[in-house]
């Protein structure tokens, strides 16, 4: 890559790289030459002059007001697509992200599992047949599991829990659950 | 780490929650970053909010130091976080998530600084941020430190933009040359050069204080 002249670090008269000398002074790893050579001593004098002040600047507390995150989240929620709805019955709908968050929460309550992605797909509601209740859905869930859990039995439990939550909490019959264990984690010792 | 796919159709009436060994769901604040990122990519606004909460202070610090003004930094942070939400699907994990977030806020700061330069120059005496906690120092020393810090702030604000950004990331955030290169898109040699020039220029301007 071509560099502009101002982007290069010219070597000191002794041949050392001035940026290296500064970094070594900062890390406390100056070698014998850098401690005694007059060129290096001059190069690191600037470091010694600025060091404490820069450290104070770095330590100054700077926190954004809460209003920034509030406004960001307002925009984020407005960004969610409103047409992503699950049909619950006549004139009754449930936001798909809300339903997916509820199912993730179900997985999170299980020891050794953390929900990651969740997708709920609902069978098409035939036109004019909206009066009998929610159309069935299919759930695709990816999870991370703690190393050592019995994956076969834990995924079977996830399936049972999700189906139960669909019936009892969301009011949507779940006809199938795909579970992908995409990561394992180990508890810190 | 591994993939183990299990898929199937439910049996009618299957499933009792009592069969599972239930625990309290971990709060979002305790979830690992990889899980939060995947959930945010999946459209989970709550997961994104937790990511934003964890990173906002760092990003704000960078924005204040690069732009030299809290109000501009608040704008940059807000725009950067909304940008991050809209683009989080493009995060592939090639670099650390924090590096990706730094890159977005630095880009926002660059755009804002250029916009500001077209309208009016940054005032030379914009001291960024609140003064430090000076409870245990004498009024004379507090005034001296405040003045010295304000002088350093002015000196930082007077640096060319590319030098200022690289210097802030290195000296105030403590990042390495490789990560600064990934954030700014400049080569590592250029990054080293810019930081070195910035250090020299600041030392020169602060000589009167020693």
UniProtKB/TrEMBL annotation, chain A:
Highest taxon of source: Bacteria
Protein name, UniProt field: Asp23/Gls24 family envelope stress response protein
Organism this protein belongs to: Pseudonocardia spirodelae
Automatic annotation (TrEMBL), chain B:
Family: Belongs to the sigma-70 factor family. ECF subfamily.
Ranges of biased composition (kind: Pro residues): 121-131
Composition-biased stretches (Low complexity): 7-26
Positions of the UniProt region annotated as Disordered: 1-26, 117-141
SUPFAM superfamilies, alphabetized: Sigma2 domain of RNA polymerase sigma factors (SSF88946), Sigma3 and sigma4 domains of RNA polymerase sigma factors (SSF88659)
Family annotation (InterPro entries): RNA_pol_sigma-70-like, RNA_pol_sigma-70_dom, RNA_pol_sigma70_r2, RNA_pol_sigma70_r4_t2, RNA_pol_sigma_r2, RNA_pol_sigma_r3/r4-like, WH-like_DNA-bd_sf
Swiss-Prot/TrEMBL keywords: DNA-binding, Sigma factor, Transcription, Transcription regulation
Name this polypeptide is given: Sigma-70 family RNA polymerase sigma factor
Domain RNA polymerase sigma-70 region residue range list: 51-119
Domain named RNA polymerase sigma factor 70 region 4 type: residues: 151-202
NCBIfam families: sigma70-ECF
């Amino acid at each position: 890559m071509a560099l502009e002249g101002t982007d290069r670090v010219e070597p000191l008269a002794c041949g050392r790289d001035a940026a290296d000398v500064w970094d070594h002074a900062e890390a406390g790893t100056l070698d014998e030459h850098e401690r005694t050579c007059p060129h290096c001593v001059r190069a690191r004098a600037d470091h010694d002059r600025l060091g404490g002040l820069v450290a104070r600047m770095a330590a100054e507390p700077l926190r954004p007001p809460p209003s920034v995150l509030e406004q960001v989240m307002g925009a984020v929620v407005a960004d969610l697509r409103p047409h992503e709805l699950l049909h619950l019955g006549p004139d009754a709908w449930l936001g798909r992200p809300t339903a997916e968050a509820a199912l993730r929460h179900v997985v999170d309550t299980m020891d050794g599992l953390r929900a990651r992605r969740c997708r709920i797909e609902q069978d098409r509601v035939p036109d004019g047949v909206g009066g009998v209740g929610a159309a069935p859905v299919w759930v695709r869930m990816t999870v991370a599991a703690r190393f050592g859990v019995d994956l076969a039995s834990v995924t079977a439990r996830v399936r049972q829990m999700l189906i139960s939550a669909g019936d009892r909490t969301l009011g949507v019959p779940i006809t199938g659950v795909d579970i992908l264990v995409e990561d394992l984690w180990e508890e810190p010792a | 780490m591994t993939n183990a796919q299990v898929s199937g159709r439910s049996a009618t009436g299957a499933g009792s929650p009592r069969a599972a060994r239930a625990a309290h769901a971990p709060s979002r604040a305790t979830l690992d970053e990889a899980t939060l990122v995947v959930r945010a990519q999946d459209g989970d606004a709550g997961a994104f909010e937790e990511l934003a909460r964890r990173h906002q202070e760092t990003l704000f610090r960078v924005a204040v130091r690069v732009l030299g003004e809290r109000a501009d930094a608040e704008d940059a942070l807000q725009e950067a976080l909304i940008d991050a939400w809209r683009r989080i699907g493009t995060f592939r994990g090639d670099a650390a998530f924090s590096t990706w977030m730094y890159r977005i806020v630095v880009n926002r700061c660059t755009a804002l600084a250029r916009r500001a330069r077209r309208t009016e120059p940054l005032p030379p005496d914009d001291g960024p941020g609140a003064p430090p906690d000076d409870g245990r120092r004498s009024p004379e020393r507090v005034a001296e430190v405040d003045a010295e810090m304000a002088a350093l702030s002015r000196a930082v604000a007077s640096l060319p933009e590319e030098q200022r950004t690289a210097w802030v990331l290195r000296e105030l955030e403590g990042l390495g040359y490789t990560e600064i290169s990934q954030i700014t898109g400049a080569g590592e040699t250029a990054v080293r050069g810019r930081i070195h020039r910035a250090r020299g220029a600041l030392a020169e301007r602060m000589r009167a204080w020693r």
